[in-house]
């Protein structure tokens, strides 16, 4: 065999190895989480509150807490992000402001999440006196989700064909009507894609809610924005680091991880279905 | 007797330092078809877009002079741009229906003016679609996406959409250049039919098209109006050598 052929074989071999290693990690990841967490899953695990000092019972309050935190933070971040994106695309004045916004967005995107936690603690919990609460946590998570939503929305809005805007304005629509009735509906599926990605990230974050929203144990579901909440990722953290009976707590932690994965999967699937329906109803 | 409906008075236009339209004076007569012809880059599309102030969208654009609609300057500071654009409708080179249903495309102009009554909208939609010769093709699927239509149908839908505003003038910017010959012929016939209802000003690259359907022809060259007159005169006895050269294909 000549040298070129050997090189060729080596090259393909290296690529193949990379794929195998990646696949191995993914499969072993799923295997470990599901094999360790699977056995504790039962209907009660979803619907019951934690019992006997976290060594038995379910995770219902944490599940609901994470659902609330995620949805509330997206409800805050989505309009803010979309409005910012509209401004950046359609008004884009003055230039210095746009530069600052862009730098801010890109910087925010790279900030480690624990720092969001500290920031939320200072601004929302202390200065704005919202205390450790669902609202403080959702606001902190909203800031975390903002860069992703802004970037996705900006791109989605920029991708709306210019001719739609011209057509609308030429019919005597105002700029605002054009944005509201033509540009946003057209960009919506892609904006939702951004929102879906951030839902996945927000639901799984522990650090931002550690100091701002999460509580180790709560018997009750949050009924107001000022309540502390349990949350799935923080619950895992608590089960692994606190308490006296690891042999009972660890399986519950893995079970919680499975639920968290399923929750993200569920929310994403729902969002994808919504996006698909919108896209189908106004294809172009 | 023909009446002047639109009139430019010493119209000058710049894009930053680029002097595009040079002191233009010309008239569009009511319920006639006026064709704007000339080689690429001569400013005919820019002139057309001045009539419904679409050049306002380009920040580098500066305009001096007046454009009068029924004697009123559409560039005066108090003029309402949305009102002007409703009265002076526009159809673009490439069909650009919104990604909405056929019905909502046509109803759009009325809806943005606050019309909510279904009976009024229904009636206007049907009338506009009939006027644009597309009613029979779409009446059974008004609520399907406008993007499911063919290119020629989309362009007629865009004409219907503009007609729903009951405009006085319809500006057509090379409306058939993206269409096949059959769709083109249909739109040309449609224009002649529409002449009783609306004044048409049309930019076209297609000299034969201008000859076939227009009553008046304006020949532009490098930002100047070289020749303006009744189409039959411009085409048979052009006064300017450049018009003759352009019409006979010496340059394009």
Architecture overview:
The complex is a heterodimer of chains A (284) and B (252). Chain A is mainly alpha-helical. Chain A is 76% helix and 1% strand. Chain A folds into 2 domains: 3-40; 44-281, Orthogonal Bundle (MetI-like fold). Chain A has helices spanning 3-37, 43-47, 60-91, 95-110, 113-127, 134-158, 162-170, 175-204, 207-210, 232-241, 246-281, and strands at residues 50-51, 56-57. In chain A, strand 1 (50-51) and strand 2 (56-57) form a beta hairpin. Chain B is built from 10 helices and 10 strands. In chain B, the strands form 2 sheets. In chain B, strands 6-7-8-3-9-10 form a 6-stranded mixed sheet, sandwiched between helices. Chain B has a 4-stranded antiparallel sheet with strand order 2-1-4-5, covered by helices on one side. Chain B is globular and about 55 Å long.
What topology does this entry show?
The complex is a heterodimer of chains A (284) and B (252).
Chain A: H1 3-37, H2 43-47, E1 50-51, E2 56-57, H3 60-91, H4 95-110, H5 113-127, H6 134-158, H7 162-170, H8 175-204, H9 207-210, H10 232-241, H11 246-281
Antiparallel strand pairs in A: 1-2
Chain B: E1 4-15, E2 18-29, E3 33-37, H1 44-50, E4 61-69, E5 72-73, H2 81-87, E6 88-91, H3 102-111, H4 118-131, H5 135-138, H6 151-163, E7 169-173, H7 181-194, E8 199-203, H8 207-213, E9 216-221, E10 224-230, H9 231-236, H10 241-247
Parallel strand pairs in B: 3-8, 3-9, 6-7, 7-8
Antiparallel strand pairs in B: 1-2, 1-4, 4-5, 9-10
